[in-house]
Design a protein that fits this description.
Radius of gyration: 23 Å
CATH class of the largest domain: Alpha Beta
CATH topology of the largest domain: Conserved hypothetical protein from pyrococcus furiosus pfu- 392566-001, ParB domain
Number of helices: 13
Number of strands: 21
CATH architecture of the largest domain: Alpha-Beta Complex
Mean pLDDT: 93
Shape: globular
Length: 414
């Protein structure tokens, strides 16, 4: 067993059951300040006052202004002092269940090891951006807590499954119907024997995988290094050596499509563009929305018409990144035909998450602001794992995970 286990129990800061519904909020990174302000209106206990504290400051304030992090810490402290939030007295694991329509996923809230992240046992598949990392570093440092959970995926573990199934037979400590009609439920695992079994079972795993939250992981790693340098008695077991995560079995996770819309056809007429596509794709006009039902198929919406694009020859490569549908679209269409080479920086492309549906693509194109839209088949979990295991990274905006985890239901004080 490793000296520092992959996952540890922790003393969560969480709302008292009677306040849980008022506290729970959408993740900080899926709302802008305007939307957050609207969501938090007349909700003094909403966690958005902590995760998006700019909503309580003068309009147009820079969200990275130091005063925003000070306000966030002040609001967090206020909810603790009012008894809305309270810290558990003993380290626990927490079963977290998210239900969206017919889809149910049940996992564990844990303190994941920063050291094991640094050693790549907690595997990544995305690049991070320094300004987003800096933002999370300042937020964690100001609060001395991690409040936005990282979404992790693990390959199913029977003994952990058994404990989770036994735990959810009891009534949850809270069950909250939150935004987008997603139900979040939480149970506490405080039995020392169960805790030990979970810790040891995860520590025998070769790897777990970051699904969402690369910036939170990177920031936690940076904060841990800073605090270790400041602590003459540092021994590696301190709370700052871990980060807040909620881990779900791979089999239960749901990735939605992450679609592309482009501003123009790079000077081509509609006919010339369709002809250029025919080099690598079979193009078939359809009377309905062309939702891809399998890999290597794409929907195209252009000039009030949907087309189904089917790849003629899948790439002959073992590179898991090149095999992704998002890469195929980028290589054969966005780059070579439309001259969109940098998905991060090019202003001629935008992205629409699958939760919004394919009619959203039509709206963007029909408005005249965009010339064409591409619907993709969702990236699969086995593809994500293959990329992470190979030490490579996916193109930007390759995965859209749903349901999103709520902020505020469980935090990790460091």
């Amino acid at each position: 067993m490793n000296t520092i286990p992959l996952f540890r129990p922790f003393k969560a800061v969480r709302p008292l059951p009677e306040f849980a519904a008022q506290v729970a909020a959408l993740p900080y990174d899926v709302l802008d300040a305007k939307e957050a302000k609207l969501k938090a209106k007349n909700k003094p206990f909403s966690f958005l006052h902590i995760s998006k504290a700019e909503i309580d400051l003068p309009e147009n304030i820079d969200p990275y202004d130091p005063v925003v992090y000070e306000k966030s810490a002040e609001n967090y402290k206020s909810l603790l002092e009012k008894g809305v939030l309270k810290q558990d007295q003993t380290p626990c694991y927490y079963v977290y269940r998210a239900t969206m329509g017919n889809h149910v996923q049940t996992g564990l809230a844990v303190a994941a090891s920063v050291e094991q992240y640094d050693l790549n046992r907690i595997r990544k598949h995305e690049f991070t951006r320094i300004e987003k990392e800096d933002d999370r570093v300042r937020q964690i440092d100001a609060l001395s807590a991690q409040t936005g959970p990282v979404l992790l995926a693990y390959k199913q573990i029977p003994v952990v499954d058994t404990i989770i199934k036994k735990t959810v037979l009891n009534k949850p400590v809270y069950q909250v119907m939150a935004d987008n009609d997603i139900c979040h439920a939480l149970w506490v695992i405080d039995d020392p024997k169960d805790i030990q079994i979970i810790t040891e079972a995860f520590d025998q795993q070769n790897a777990v995988y970051i699904a969402d939250g690369h910036h939170r992981c990177a920031a936690a790693s940076r904060v841990a290094k800073i605090r270790a340098q400041q602590n003459p008695d540092h021994n590696g077991t301190e709370a700052y050596n871990s980060f807040l995560a909620i881990a779900f079995p791979v089999e239960e996770m749901k990735i939605l499509d992450y679609n592309r819309i482009v501003k123009d056809l790079n000077g081509l007429t509609k006919e010339a563009f369709l002809n250029a596509l025919k080099k690598d794709f079979f193009i078939q006009p359809v009377e309905h929305i062309a939702k891809p039902e399998k890999k290597n198929t794409f929907g195209l919406y252009l000039d009030h018409q949907w087309y189904l694009m089917t790849l003629k020859n899948p790439p002959e490569t073992e590179d898991p990144v090149k095999l992704l549908d998002v890469s195929i679209l980028s290589d054969l269409v966005l780059d070579s035909i439309l001259n969109i080479k940098d998905l991060r920086k090019d202003k001629r492309i935008d992205f629409v998450g699958g939760m919004r549906g394919l009619t959203e693509l039509q709206k963007h194109v029909d408005s005249g602001d965009f010339s064409a839209a591409f619907a993709l088949y969702p990236t699969q979990m086995n593809e994500l794992i293959a990329v992470a295991d190979s030490g490579k990274v996916m193109p930007p905006k390759s995965t859209w995970f749903e349901p999103k985890l709520a902020d505020g239901l469980v935090s990790n004080p460091i």
